[in-house]
Structures are given as structure tokens and as C-alpha cells.
Amino acid sequence: MRGTDVDTPSRPARRSRSAPRTVRREPRGFGRTVVGVAILAVMLFPLYWMLNVSLQPAGAAVATPWFPVDLSLDGYATAIREQSGNLGTSLVVGLGSVVVSLVIATPAAYAMARFRLGRWVEVLLFGVLITQMVPGIVVANALYSAYSDLGLLNTVGGLILADSALGVPFSILVMRAFMRGIPGSVVEAAYVDGAGPVRAFVSVVLPMSRNALVTAGLFSFLFAWGDFLFALTLTTTETVRPITLGLYTYIGSFVNDWSPIMATAVLSSLPAIVLLVVAQRYVAAGVTGGAVK
């Protein structure tokens, strides 16, 4: 009734959502930090020692100090003068292996990820995995016999094909996993706009799979750049010699002076380090981020 005061039970005041909450932060484990720094120091010490020895003057490799006091670039001058051709060969072989691996693996991975192939997909994946399990020495011996008949020994093209045998299966596995995460609605929208399968693949799928392409290309280059077994088996002259084999034969010539050897090792490590630093954000980024709006 009007004019009558009705007592209503008082409700407890709700806690404001904007009220600050006390967050308990666990103290950082000092022991874990020390252990992590120690492990990192042990892992990076060979790289530091390689750089340290490469900066030593000639004849100082026997009693190398812990820190490069008397810096000398004579080792790098010798390495560049005598190993620049091998570095160029490795660069050409690595880039060629990337191109061959991506050209073959990209459409194969897309077909296995998007098309309905039934149980054939599992059979193909099993075959790809089997190729990754075969020892490299077995493949190298088989390739030597075939290359001898085809005239591909001591050729850059032969090394590219051999190194691509490692890059193609790995690239298929990586890119298929990435392409399976691409929303089907994006490809269907391209079909609605009038694009065919090839146009949708080139204009839609490939740009969205940029991170997968960078990842597969990076590892294909690293496989070819660090290859030693195929280089040792399929090259018998000095005309075509990658840097890994050049460094192996270099030790016999400068066994009394390790400065040029370590300088060559530093130069051969630079391309891999630069690529890993540049491409790490593409490897860590998501494939379909921002694709569907």
C-alpha cells in the first residue's frame, strides 16, 4: 500500500569487478636460473671457442688464451681466399634444394590436406615417413650408382636433387599439418568469387601458408647446407665441393694452424644463424591468424 513502509531484507553488497585483486607471485627460482645459465654456457662454449681460435694469429692455436688478446684476421683472409668457391657451391645447392622441395611438396601437401583421397592419404603419409627412416648411407650408395649411369656425378644439379630427397618428405609433413588448419570457408569463398582450384591455391592458400612455406624452406636449406654424406659420396673432384666437404679436406692442410679452419667454420655458420634469426617469427606465428574476419 501507498504510504506504508515495507522493510526489505538488506542484500550484501556485491564485490566490484574493478576492485583490485591481490595476485600472489611466486618468487623466481634462483637455482633454476643458475642451472639454465650454466646449461646455456656449456652449449654455447664451442661456438665461443671456435670464434676465439679464428681470431688468433698464426701459430697460436696450441696454447690458445681464454680471451682473444692479440686479434688477427689472417685466418679469415685465408679462409675467404681458399674456401669462397665452396661457400658459393653450398649456397647454390641450398637455394636450389629449397626451390625443388617447395615446388614438389607444396601441391602434394595441399592435395593430401584438402582433397578427399580416402585411405590413400594414410598410405602416402606412411610412405613419406618410411623415406625419413631410411639411413642416408643407403640412399647415398644407391644414388652413386644411378648418378654414375646418368652422368650426374660432380654436378651442382645432382647435389640439389640428392638434398631435395631429404627436404621434400619433411616439407610435405610440415605443410600438410599447416594446411589442414586453414578454414574451408576461405577456399569456398574463393570458389564463389569465380576462382578455380589452381587460382584458389595460388591466390588464397599460398599467402595464408606463408609461415609454413618459410618453415619448410628454412629446414630444406639447413638440410642441404649441412649435408656431408651426399657431398662426400657424389663428388670426387674439387670442381664441385660444398663447404662441409671443403672444411673436412681443409683440416689435413692446416692441421698445425687451426685459425683458418675455425674461420671457415665461423663463415659456414653465419648463413644458418642469420636465417634462423630472421625466420623465427614466421615459424612461431600462427598460420590462419587474421584470415577469417
Automatic annotation (TrEMBL):
Annotated ABC transmembrane type-1 domain residues: 87-279
The keyword Transport belongs to this UniProt entry's keyword annotation: yes
Positions of transmembrane segments: 30-51, 91-111, 123-144, 156-175, 212-232, 258-279
Domain of life: Bacteria
A Pfam family per the record: BPD_transp_1
PROSITE patterns per the UniProt record, alphabetical: ABC_TM1
Location of region: Disordered: 1-25
rRNA-binding listed as a keyword: no
Keyword terms: Cell membrane, Membrane, Transmembrane, Transmembrane helix, Transport
Gene3D superfamilies to which the protein is assigned, alphabetical: MetI-like
Topology with respect to the bilayer: Multi-pass membrane protein
Protein family according to the UniProt entry: Belongs to the binding-protein-dependent transport system permease family.
Name of this chain's protein: Carbohydrate ABC transporter permease
Native organism: Kineococcus gynurae
